[in-house]
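Human: You know discrete backbone vocabularies at least as well as I do. Show me how you would write down a chain together with its backbone fold. No explanation is needed for now; the record alone will do.

Assistant:
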Amino acid sequence: MSQYYNPQRTRNMYEKDSEKEFRLSRGKIDNFIACPRCFYLDRKLEVAQPPGYPFSLNSAVDKLLKKEFDIHRANGTTHPLMKKYDIDAVPLSHEKMNEWRDSLRAGITFKVDGENIVITGGVDDVWVKPDGEFIIVDYQQAVSVADKLRL
């Protein structure tokens, strides 16, 4: 068996009537939408999916964008990319921003009423418009949309 793939999942399995919290990430919800059967095998029958390839370039871009937007957050200014794409917003300055970004240890959680399900996730950034509306940002998706707008 590969050192990178252990098909027998042993934690965070769904048990409906359990008092134990079942944590469900945005990525796992995406997996369910893409293939409900794969999700069921993974979270109910303990057959994990093989891991994807490491995304070193994506991680580096993500880290650099966070640093760059943090400069504008500290200064209360609009990033040049936001100006270029007519996004009237500034990066939100909030004491919990680093916590919200840390999807593995903190992130943002939402408990589903009457269930043992907790939706979890992290954000890359939050921007705020002049009217107070928040824009939740995933840099990878934002870059993809920007590329499509250039076509």
